[in-house]
Structure formats: structure tokens, C-alpha cells
Design a protein that fits this description.
Helix content is 41%, strand content 21%. The chain is α/β, with parallel strands linked by helices and 369 residues long. The strands form three sheets. A ten-stranded mixed beta sheet has the order 2-1-3-12-11-4-5-10-8-9, sandwiched between helices. A two-stranded antiparallel sheet has the order 6-7. The site of nicotinamide-adenine-dinucleotide has 22 residues, from helix 4.
Length: 369
């Protein structure tokens, strides 16, 4: 089997210490599961600004295009507060997403039984929750033209953003959602505001026939975004895959994430279009959390969001579905053994470091082998 090429981008803050532990995890899979990885490492964010003069260099972008998957941890920190906006750490992440044309953002919200009490919702509402939000990431109101501020001839100031979607943009994000639903519980909820927005009515008019023609086996349901926001806290388990635009996806994925109650547990992936020849998609895998400057360098960070991100990378880019399941099960076992980093600590559990949590996951992997 050809080696699977992964570009590792630790980034800033807690990024390097989490990446160090992630290398131990990948090493376990190469030794015990005989997987062949070709790992390379690059700079992104503030580390890249300091080292290479830009928050992501052209050379790193070229490498990101050439590998099978890119795994990043986090960028940012107060050290770069006074750097010009275009050179800030976050600009590196935005450029990576834009240049690789990563239009599909996947944000799962999974509640582990061991952490069911971390949610602000009652356990009976969130127990067993496993939903996936697919957010369109490169179009819509965050990018639409015209945009800007102006002063009208009567002196009134105004600002303007444009919500715009083309048929191909809607079709490609919908296809991602339907294909993922086929690997899950076969249900897609498409979310917009067809009642009050032209772009919402168009979104619905594009998704409905596409589903009928290409995915008749997947159940499709439509929901207005405000109702979806409500349903997510009323009865979140009714959902399987939710597909929505950039703006609503931004809000709804944060809401869904908080159903789980803990930032240190949330993975994400961003995917591009499939290559015409190989069918492979460009991809960027990253935990949802930031660089946590308040705990950086102290071996306190929770590495589980990144480990669950690795499981997504196994499943969606490396064709290692069974190993993804193996890793997710090990995370679950580690939590059931009582190991907790500070962010998810509960009475009666054992406080562990980043390294300690990794040890617990590796032990669970060994035990399940
Ligand atoms: P943050 O996610 O870094 O931290 C928020 C809180 O959660 C902090 O108290 C932090 O200690 C805690 N936390 C986050 N991840 C954790 C983990 N893995 N384990 C334990 N605790 C964890 O968000 P913030 O404080 O708003 O931002 C800090 C920096 O990160 C900023 O520069 C921001 O721009 C950047 N940021 C980057 C990304 C990214 O790289 N994708 C995302 C969000 C924020």
C-alpha cells in the first residue's frame, strides 16, 4: 500500500503540544495496524509569520495541495495582536481554506455517555446525540458582492452585504450532505429561510429535484433556519445530517456544538471538490477550539478534539473507516476509565495532563486490539 501522506500543521498556543501527542497516536496506528504514513510538518499562523514572514507561505500551500490530508491544530495569540490584519495568524487559516477551495465544512456534534452531564441540556434530551452539520464555507453573505459602506447623497450612511448562491454552489454542498448521510442514518435536513429570502427559496428549489434524481434513498426534509435553531435545543436527536449555507451554518454549528458542552471535544473537517481523475478531495482537518493561550505550554490541553479530528481524517480522506471507529471507541473508553483533562473535569474523576489523556487513549487502543 502506498504511504498515506499527511501534512501536520501544529500552529500556535496549545497546537504544538497537542500535535506532539497526536504523533504518538499516529505512531500507534503505523506500528500496531501496519498503516504506512508519510508525515511532514509545516508552519501556520503566528509561528509561520515569525518563521516565514506570512501566516501561511506559498510553499506550505503547495505542500497542502500535494498530500492526502492536512491536519492542523490551532492558530492565534496576543503576541500577534498588532500585526496588520492580512498577516494575522487567522488570515493564514482563511487563506488555506480559500486557496484549497474547501467549500464544505463538516461539524459533528456527538455526546459521549461519560460526558452527558457537561451539556446544559437535560441528559434525556442529549444522551446518544450524534449529528453532523454540513456548512457551505466559501459562498453566501460572507463573500457576496457588492459589499461595503457608503454615504448616500442625502448624507445617510449605510452598510451592505450580499447573500448570493449559484446553482452549482448549492448542488455541490448538497451532494456532500447526501453522500455523508448514506454512510450514517440516511436523512438530510436542508435549512434556509425560503419564506423570506429569495436565495432561500432558490436553495430549496435546487435541493429538492437534486435529491429526487440522485438520492431517492435518502430522506430529505426542509426546515427554516429559525425553526432549526429551536429544534436543536428542543429535540436535537431528530437530526442526522443538516446542510445549510455559510451564515446559518456558522450559527447553527456553534449551537449544536454547545449541546455537547465542551469545546475540547469538538472535531471538524473542511473538504474541497473531488478531483476529476482520482476522486480524492483536498481537505483540512482541525479541531474547533482555538489556541487557548491561557493554558498553552502547560501540558493541560485536552487532545481529544484533535484525536476525533484524526478519526474524521481516517474516514473521509484516507479510506480507513474501521480505524476511525477503533479510534473513536478508544476515546470513549478513555473517558469511561475516568480520565479527564481540566476542561471536562468532574467530581470523582481523575485529572490528567495532555500526555496522560493520550496514554489513556493508547491503553484503550491496546486493550481493544
Ligand atoms: P479558545 O478556543 O482558544 O479558548 C477558549 C477557552 O477554552 C479557553 O479558556 C481555553 O483554555 C479553553 N480551551 C480551548 N481548547 C481547549 C482544549 N483543547 N483543552 C482545554 N481547554 C481548551 O478561544 P479564544 O480564547 O477565543 O481564542 C484564543 C486564540 O485562538 C485567539 O487568537 C483566536 O483568534 C484563536 N482561535 C483560533 C481558532 C482556530 O485555530 N481554528 C479557532 C478559534 C479561536
Amino acid at each position: 500500500m502506498a504511504a498515506l501522506r499527511i501534512l501536520l500543521l501544529p500552529g500556535d498556543g496549545i497546537g504544538p503540544e497537542i500535535m506532539r501527542e497526536t504523533r504518538r497516536l499516529l505512531d500507534w496506528f503505523s506500528r500496531k495496524r501496519k498503516l504506512s504514513f508519510e508525515l511532514s510538518e509545516g508552519l501556520v499562523g503566528g509561528a509561520a509569520y515569525d518563521g516565514e514572514g506570512a501566516p501561511v507561505s506559498d510553499a506550505t500551500l503547495a505542500r497542502a495541495r500535494a498530500v492526502d490530508a492536512v491536519l492542523m491544530v490551532s492558530v492565534g495569540g496576543t503576541k500577534w495582536d498588532n500585526v496588520p490584519r492580512a498577516l494575522r495568524p487567522e488570515a493564514g487559516l482563511l487563506r488555506l481554506r480559500k486557496e484549497l477551495d474547501l467549500f464544505a465544512n463538516l461539524r459533528p456534534a456527538i455526546v459521549f455517555d461519560a460526558l452527558v452531564d457537561a451539556s446544559t441540556l437535560r441528559p434525556e434530551i442529549v444522551r446518544g446525540l450524534d449529528i453532523l452539520i454540513v456548512r457551505e464555507l466559501t459562498g453566501g453573505v460572507y463573500f457576496g458582492q457588492p459589499r461595503g459602506r457608503e454615504t448616500l447623497s442625502d448624507g445617510t450612511e449605510r452598510a451592505l452585504d450580499t447573500q448570493v448562491y449559484t446553482r452549482p454552489e448549492i448542488e455541490r454542498i448538497a451532494r456532500v450532505a447526501f453522500e455523508l448521510a448514506r454512510k450514517r442514518r440516511n436523512k438530510v435536513t436542508s435549512v434556509e429561510k425560503a419564506n423570506v429570502m429569495e436565495s432561500g427559496a432558490f436553495w430549496r428549489a435546487v435541493v429538492t429535484p437534486l435529491a429526487k434524481a440522485e438520492y431517492p434513498d435518502v430522506t430529505l426534509e426542509h426546515l427554516y433556519a429559525d425553526n432549526c435553531a429551536m429544534q436543536l435545543v428542543r429535540n436535537p436527536r431528530q437530526f442526522d445530517v443538516i446542510v445549510t449555507d455559510n451564515l446559518f451554518g456558522d450559527l447553527l454549528s456553534d449551537e449544536a456544538a454547545m449541546l455537547t458542552g465542551s469545546l475540547g471535544m469538538l472535531p471538524s473537517a473542511s473538504l474541497g471538490a473531488p478531483d476529476a481523475k482520482t476522486g480524492k478531495r483536498l481537505s483540512l482537518y482541525e479541531p474547533v477550539h482555538g489556541s487557548a493561550p491561557d493554558i498553552a505550554g502547560q501540558n493541560k490541553a485536552n487532545p481529544l478534539a484533535t484525536f476525533l479530528t484524526v478519526a474524521m481524517m481516517f474516514r473521509y480522506s484516507l479510506d480507513l473507516g474501521k480505524d476511525a471507529e477503533r479510534l473513536e471507541a478508544a476515546v470513549k473508553s478513555a473517558l469511561e476509565s475516568g480520565a479527564r483533562t481540566g476542561d471536562i473535569m468532574q467530581p470523582g474523576k481523575t485529572l490528567v495532563s495532555t500526555t496522560g489523556m493520550t496514554d489513556a487513549v493508547l491503553k484503550a487502543l491496546d486493550q481493544a486490539l
